[in-house]
Amino acid sequence: MKRFSRRETLAISTSFVTGSLLAAPAKAQGRPRVVIVGGGFGGASAARTLRQIEPDFDVILITEAAQFSTCPFSNMVIAGERPFEAITFGYDGLAARGVQIVIGRAIELQTSGQVVVMEDGTKVAYDRLIVSPGIELKYTDIPGYDEALQDRMPHAWKAGAQTVLLRDQIAAMRQGGTFVMSVPNNPYRCPPGPYERAGLVAHFFKKNNPTAKIIIVDGKDSFSKQALFTEAWDHLYPGMITHVPFSDNGGVIEVDPEALTVTTAFETFAGDVVNLIPPQRAPQLLLQAGLGGDGEWCPIDQATFESPFAPGVHVLGDAAIVGDMPKSGFSASVQGGVCAHVVAALLQGEPPQQGVLLNTCYSLVGPEYGISVAGVYRVNAEGRLKSVEGTGGTSPTGASDDFRVSEAAYAKSWYANMTTYLFG
Amino acid sequence: MPFCARLTLRTGNLALADMHRYLLAVGFAVACTPVLAQSTSDEITFLSCQMCHGQTDSAGMMPVIQGKPYEGLVQSLASFSGQNPGTTIMHRFVGGLTPEERDSLARYISGLEGVSR
Fold first, then answer.
1. Pair (A229, A303) in one structural domain
2. Residue A121 lies in a domain
3. How far apart are the first and last CA of chain B?
4. Can you tell me the mean pLDDT for A307-326?
5. For B94, nearest residue in chain A (alpha carbons)
6. ipTM
């Protein structure tokens, strides 16, 4: 692969830089400049990979906060099994690899002018842009709910203060109380996440509040790893968790955050603690730039992650429609790495190559009870990232306790290794 | 992807109009599409492997594999596709690779610099 000649100025400052330094026109500097919006799994992976394979590129990561808390393993925090600090990471590792970290909020993607406009008015120019900002919650899709009421009925679907809040509400719930979860229809971030949460909260209740009940009011009839979850719930927490599928509730029509009720077409569910997970979409930042087309998620060229609506802009992770891959942190991490290779190739004037992409999602139904789903994906002749027939799938039902213990250990290793790789 | 690989643009001049480069790159990508669907890069496939097997083996469950001998790697990949894989998840992945891809990937991984941690 042809490389741009290295310069004596190659050693890039690893310090955090300000927006004003970045506002200079990219092309005048003669080095390819890739800007990445989003400091989660996808963005961190893209940044790390790009710096590794193209040390002559300027790689700028724009992220809203100085720290990132992961949704994976946030349910362990909610269940009181891990401290919040254990799922929170900074960007020193990426900075040490030469990624320039910009902490701030991007408010506009000017794709025709190839700049990202920051909240403070600075403009960050790019040769190619990678966007991996995760999801936006559609609070007002549920009558009665509002962003201002999120602390009354926490969603805890973006890890952070909401995670800690839900943990504390669950810990303070009266003995024998009811924990209601409202779960949206597909598509949403982390398909098995709500059911993992139900199991781990049940584990907490079993130890601390054994007569408590959990009711899952679902916006769909079936869910990811369903047979494995229900088998585990019956085994570990018999009678504690009730799953009410869409066909039995008719869908949420209203919530009352003061009374802590969730009203569906058929029934009203009252909780002592309510976890309301709203429907989701790609963030407004992307939709207002036209990257969603007529929809709420961003279509892409599934071989290159490039938007059909904005040449030079690549979208990945939860915000994008990435073929058969689920909206998971692991998927976003893999996509970030692949997208980095694509962007590097295109900026070098070369055709991007393809690989085989994997997804692995472990769920803990109890701290020592793990289950998993896996997927293998390849770009087919039509350019679609398809699941490979006969591969992937879930852990077996009816497996031994030893098998579940083993998968729980793998889950912990999976999380530690992935976060060390990205943020360590 | 030998055919596509030879189509490298001979330019390092970033002053070229972006749209021009974009159209060229897309043109090549389209021209290569049937090949792309069949041919994969070990370096890109390894991105998925290294999320679990990359820099550290925190709990002794998912070994660091880069720089490990080729024979052991290719043997492991073969055993995962057999009747008694002796694994909880790897057997769900290996069927997605052709035997040639497994062999090539093992060679690639063994050629990487080892991680001492």
1. no
2. yes
3. 34
4. 98
5. A391
6. 0.90
